[in-house]
Amino acid sequence: MKIENYLHLYKGCLVLGIKSGEIAPLNIIDEKVEAIAYSGQIKLLLRPFSDLQKEEMIELWNSIFWYKFTANCRVQRIDKNTTSSDPRWVLMAGVERLGIEDNGTVWADCDLSHYKHNQHEVTRWFLSKHFDLFGLIKAELAIDKTTLQQNDRPNGFAEGSVGANTNTQGDAKLETSSGIA
User: Fold this and answer.
1) Same domain? 84 vs 143
2) What's the total number of domains in the chain?
3) Which domain holds residue 110?
4) Based on the domain organization, do 144 and 178 belong to the same domain?
5) What's the confidence (pLDDT) of residue 149?
6) 6, 23, 157, 164: which has the fewest C-beta neighbours closer than 10 Å?
7) What is the pLDDT of residues 127-153, one digit of tens each?
């Protein structure tokens, strides 16, 4: 598994400069960026599926089904100890259901029959929200964004601080349209 094979999918995602502790959006992908990523000097900051928020689930519902998710609809958490499948969120409205499993699998049904939806659009949606679709966090090619606490951040780490900063530590630089990581 090589990080450079995934960078183009996460354009706009934040990256962390490992040595510098600086953060910048990934706005360009070229040979220089791939070389820096390959050397392990940057990591994507991605979200695990456990970070999926209710508002995002409803947004996903509204992109799959022809009618909007309303106050009459339900959202339910089903944990692994209650069923043989992966833990998941299930959104329900009448006979329609949308399941979002913790491993990233998304399914939809209507009256217990498969509901055809555009899986490519669902994938695009998850990528746009910077979810880890490929196990990059587990492979240590990305960092779980939810684990970064203000007091855990390296010296100099400040989201949005990179602008036109110059890296004075001699580290490799990631040039983006908004700065250096």
Assistant:
1) no
2) 2
3) 52-126
4) yes
5) 62
6) 164
7) 999 999 999 999 998 999 998 865 444
Spell out a b/e string for 107-140, using b for 16 or more CB atoms within 10 Å of the CB, else e: bbeeeeeeeebeeeebeebbbebbbbbbebbeee
- Are 181 and 169 contacting, i.e. CB atoms less than 8 angstroms apart? no
pLDDT in tens, 62-87: 888 777 888 788 888 888 665 556 78
Buried b (16+ CB within 10 A) or exposed e, 71-84: eebeeeeeeeeeee
85 and 108 in one domain? yes
75 shares its domain with 58: yes
